[in-house]
Amino acid sequence: MEEKLYDSHFKPSSSRYSWTRLTDKVKSITQRAGDSSTYHKILIGVATLLFLSLFTQVPFLPHFRTASPKVVIILAANEGGGVLKWKGPQDWSIERSSIANKKNYAKQHGYALTIKDMTVKKRYSHEWRESWEKVDLMKQTMRQFPEAEWFWWLDLHTFIMEPGLSLEDHFLNDLDNATYRTLDHFNPLALPEDLPYVDYTKQIDLIVTQDCGGFNLGSFLMRRSSWSEMLLDAWWDPALYEQMHMEWEHKEQDALETLYSTSPWVRERTAFLPLRKINAFPPGACSDNADDPQYFYRHHDFVINMAGCEYGRDCWGEMEHYKSLSKRLTRPWWHFW
Questions:
Q1: Which residues form a coiled coil (predicted)?
Q2: pLDDT given for residue 119 in this prediction
Q3: Is residue 166, in this structure, part of any structural domain at all?
Q4: At 160, which CATH number?
Q5: In angstroms, rounded to a whole number, what is the distance separating the alpha carbons of residues 234 and 89?
């Protein structure tokens, strides 16, 4: 049966393949035929297909995978929040492109992908928690994948531009050098630069970026830990929400910034990546800082985030542009089609 594009989640295959098993199988078939030359021809053919499968984008043979993914990608299919929003052809096209992009990336690197379709989540349709779904869905996903280590949230209007680059190679295997821990490096909201009793040698469990408006939650990562569970509980705390939600224009973002600004235990396990590392902007975003190169996409940046495109920009046009650009930039030199 043809695989559905809108499957709610994808897990890498737990099947294991070995070169010895493949060659033994081929040998047994050809020996029964009594033709050693056929054996060598088939063996060469299998080796060729295996090479093409591992080093090109065409999976002629299944890639080697582990049963339990280290990373889970979380994608909300209705980024804008609300319930049963009417979508036109361009909206559906954006959604299909974004989902296919993350699904292909997850398969290529052995990650899991879970798609949270917000069009049926009526619990977020009223004033009490609309636009707060990221915190709740992060908690749900950690329960859904109990053995995964990292959880990467991506908004719908994002596109992975360098699909061949794994998160481990990009920064996860060298977090201390890839991230910065204090706000003296970059502090667009002028938050308190330091708090007493903060131990910056603690393990990094939350990775975010900052843009011209503060923390950016369009693309961020959280590690499974007891600290993360405590942070999610505090972040979702109804008492905190009731006291401050009228002052928080950006909902979850403002709540996290408040926790970071006032709680040493939150600050000491939070680290920042430069925006373009996982969250580069297209022209038109952060328009007041159009001359600042740290915000805006350059060729071979990892992820483009078309943040705010629904407010006066062309979301579909931007998605199609960057989808085409990614295909052109990452096409192997030997591909002529």
A1: none
A2: 61
A3: yes
A4: 3.90.550.10
A5: 39
Beta bridge partners, 112, equal 72
**Residues 29, 146 within the same domain:** no
Range of the domain at 158: 71-272
> What is the Cα 101 distance to its own chain's centre?
10
- Assess whether 25 and 155 both reside in one domain: no
**Beta strands in the chain, from DSSP E residues, in sequence order:** 9-10, 71-76, 112-116, 150-154, 158-160, 206-211, 214-223, 270-273, 283-286, 303-305
Q: How far, in Å, CA of 269 to CA of 86, rounded?
A: 40
What is the spatial distance between Cα 232 and Cα 242, in angstroms, rounded to a whole number? 16
Q: Which of 205, 211, 201, 191 is nearest to 277 (CA)?
A: 211
Is the distance from CB of 49 to CB of 43 less than 8 angstroms?
no
Closest CA to 104 of 51, 55, 57, 151: 57
The DSSP secondary-structure symbol of 333 reads: T
| 3-state class (DSSP) for residue 183 | coil
The reported pLDDT for the residue numbered 68 is 81
Residues of the chain with pLDDT under 50: 1-6, 15-17, 57-65, 79-84, 126-127
Both ends of the chain: CA-CA distance in Å?
Answer: 28
44 φψ region: left (φ > 0), alpha (ψ -120 to 50), beta (else): alpha
Predicted confidence at residue 45, as pLDDT, reads 74
